[in-house]
């Protein structure tokens, strides 16, 4: 269970082509678009207002920069691995080479949950904005077909609705995008590129048009005063009381840091680029460009967007506001942007769902090729796509999106992502010691400092998540461990090769 895949074997697998392998169709620009498509979504349009109103005020732009730096630590580690081992599977594959088969299984099983719940959660939100778009044209779906059953839903008008039957639009969008992926990665990439261009264009338009309406008074004070920090400076309270009384994170320097923690998850998604390594035309060059390029572009857009947003409306206006971006838009006089923003959010959510479904199927494809899962998950169509895996997950994710209140499982997406980030950072340190002479087209700078900082940031973020998230993750992992020992370990291709003397 601790067998490790050699780098030479992984590189050989990545260089295979023809029947039975994934088709290479993604250019460097396509990989950047894939990353931007996965990153820009709900985080930009919802978390910005929350972080500004409750934690950082106008200094939310500083929080974005801090969050980006923290995310970049993991991103640089991903870039080294993706250029060195350009194989589908992302953190699963990297763990196989550094920490052995069992840890690779654990992280692969974790990634499946991450991508599934992320796709389902975004699909559920997508349906709400789709219905808003229908209302503009005088149409709307009944609430019974917009909400999952069994729980109460608090609607925008303040009422409580508990008669949900199914979230029908969420199921439809998951099915449509799954069928698109089955048709081919190139076609999926073309659709994703169009969606990315659309949402980036509207974000840039908001920044450009909103800039002239910025009221400098809204940026004052830039960092709102934290009463607890003032009392701490004056010696009227101790450090223990500062945390006990709940002062930490409510504005001041601590608020900027707390907001950075909240906004860290607005950058999650770049790791999905590495799952498409075997579909990149030139992975050794394209993967680092895709990962780092998407992070840089999104950071720039996030900082400018938050600056304009908090300049158009005072940060206190976003308190308890379910649609903070619309509140800011109202200050511009360009009312047509409200409709454009709804279209943009729909486009943003669509591209995120698409990339999550892509990443999920590619992780299962890699695990199946290694014998840890049944061969059905690595069967390819004539278009060289894992169509059976796509169909299976179409059903799986659709059920979550349509019938389960996945919003309360959102923290599990975060904890799964951070766990993967942590193992990748550890893996870079391990590989530098174990395989120092392996060709690395891209090298993470300042090793081991950068990976260690990445580990610290990720562990701190994980520690801040609710206990329930850890419990649910534990149950999912327990199921995975049982499957590994019942099926995966016995059918492992690497294990059979080593025991037969072929490896």
TrEMBL record:
Tagged with keyword Transport: yes
InterPro entries: AA/rel_permease1
Recorded superkingdom: Bacteria
Subcellular location: Membrane
UniProt entry tagged with the keyword Glycoprotein: no
Keyword annotations of the record: Membrane, Transmembrane, Transmembrane helix, Transport
Any Pfam family hit: AA_permease_2
Full protein name: Basic amino acid/polyamine antiporter, APA family
Species: Sphingobacterium nematocida
Upper classification of the organism: Bacteria, Pseudomonadati, Bacteroidota, Sphingobacteriia, Sphingobacteriales
